[in-house]
Structure formats: C-alpha cells, structure tokens
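Subject: sequence -> structure tokens, single chain

Hey, anyone have a minute? Need the predicted structure for the following. Not urgent.
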Amino acid sequence: MTLSIFLFITSLLLYSSNAAVQDFCVADLTAPYGPAGYSCKDPAKVTVADFVYSGLGVPGNTSNLIKAAVSPAFALQFPGVNGLDISLLRLDLAVGGVVPMHTHPGGTELLLVAQGTICAGFIDSANKVYYKTLKRGDIMLFPRGLLHFQINGGGTTALAFASFSSATPGLQILDFALFANDLPSELVEKTTFLDDAQVKKLKGVLGGTN
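Reply:
Had a minute. Here:
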C-alpha cells in the first residue's frame, strides 16, 4: 500500500513537472485537428500575434433566422488559447434574438452581460430548470454539457461575452440537430411526439430533408 501511494504521488509530481516545462502550446492550424486537439506550433515560429485577438470588437451580423450572432475566440480563431483550457466568444442579440437550446460538450460556460437584458437558463440532468433575466454586469454559469439558452429580454440590442473552460468547447444546437439534417421525418416524429406536418414545417425552415 505504501509503495502504491509513493508511486501515485511520484507520478503526480512528474506530471506537474512536465506540465510546467511547456509554457504554452500555440495551435498549429496547418496540422490536422485530432481527438487531443491541435498539435503545438514550432516555438521558433510563435509570435506575439498568436496571443492577441481583435475579432471580438466588431458586432456580429444578426440578420438571420435567430437574430443572433456568435463570434468565437476558440483555438481555431485564437491559436494562443490552445491547450490552456480557456476561450471566449462575443454574443450579439438583436431585438427578438435567441440562441436556441444548445450544449457545449467540451466546456463549462460563464456568461457576462455587457449591454441590454438577456433571459438565460439551463436544464439539469434531472430536468430541473434554472433561468433568470440578466442585466448589465450580471454573470451566469452554464455547467458543461447541459442544455441552455439565451433570449434577448428587452427592447434593445443585447451584448454579452462568454468564457469557457476549454479552448474548443464545441456546440450542438438542439433544433438544428433534430430538424436541419436528413434524419427521416418518421423517426423524428416518433422520438419527439410531433406530427408529420410540424416536423416537415421545421425541416423546411431549418433546411432539413426527408
């Protein structure tokens, strides 16, 4: 038992030591993206530009079906965050804008409202709902993998910034997962309890087929 504890502590120390040797792992966007993320860019080719991103200062285009725009600063856009378990995005919501029920399988989200009001909430694995109308300066946490949403809660444009506990948190929007693909309508009807007309209508709106 003592030997096992010693080996365990030693492995933790070695892991910590190895982790500290490498200060960062700027994403090499010329290499394939794999299950472990992006490989590291050659340190000799890393510049200060890899650690600076200016894309969040420009409002996104909300002229779309959901009247919302998401501008990410994930590893793909901001290579410096690769491997550091952190990233950011900008969310613009026009009046009536909504980010439908969605999940981030790779990370927890922390939302900060910078302008306007946003009604936001999530549903836990026991189907309990947590939601609140957020005002400027409010923050709300959305645990990793749980369904959540954001809706413009006022009569003016809303702006928020969200940080994540991952450089690649991922995104799956429930409505698009159900109705924006070629899953046969019959199967969608059976799994959602919607009738054929409703399913066909939603597929037509979101671009699905079958």
